[in-house]
Amino acid sequence: MHVFINGSQLFLFTGARVLDGLTAYSAVALEDVQAGNVVVLDAEGHRLYVDGRLHDGARLTLAAAKNGEEK
């Protein structure tokens, strides 16, 4: 399936999770998300967590975590 992270197109297996997408996208981005410094948002601005499932055509954006935001 096709997934986009910050505009980069990735090809992932059906049933992939956000963790799989981040792993394919960037090890540094994955570390930043796991450390709570960066959050993953869907196309509508909803926060996603690494264990969340992805769907074909999903568009994710990485954004700096705001102060006080739950890690």
CATH superfamily: Beta-grasp domain
Low-confidence parts, pLDDT < 50 over ≥5 residues? Answer: none
User: How large is the count of helical segments?
Assistant: 2
Structural domain count: 1
CATH class designation? Alpha Beta
CATH topology: Ubiquitin-like (UB roll)
Mean pLDDT, as a whole number?
A: 94
- Overall geometric form: globular
- Describe the largest sheet: 5 strands, mixed
The CA-CA distance between the termini, in Å, is 28 Å
- Give the total of beta strands: 5
Compute the gyration radius: what is it? 11 Å
Overview of this protein structure:
There is one protein chain. With 71 residues, the protein is an alpha+beta fold. It has a single domain, classed as Ubiquitin-like (UB roll). Helix content is 24%, strand content 30%. The protein is built from two helices and five strands, in the order E-E-H-H-E-E-E. The protein has helices at 18-25, 27-35, and strands at residues 2-5, 8-11, 38-41, 47-48, 58-64. A five-stranded mixed β-sheet has the order 2-1-5-3-4, with helices on one face. The protein is globular and about 35 Å long. The N and C termini lie far apart (28 Å). The mean pLDDT is 94.
What are the SSEs and their pairings?
Elements: E1 2-5, E2 8-11, H1 18-25, H2 27-35, E3 38-41, E4 47-48, E5 58-64
Parallel strand pairs: 1-5
Antiparallel strand pairs: 1-2, 3-4, 3-5
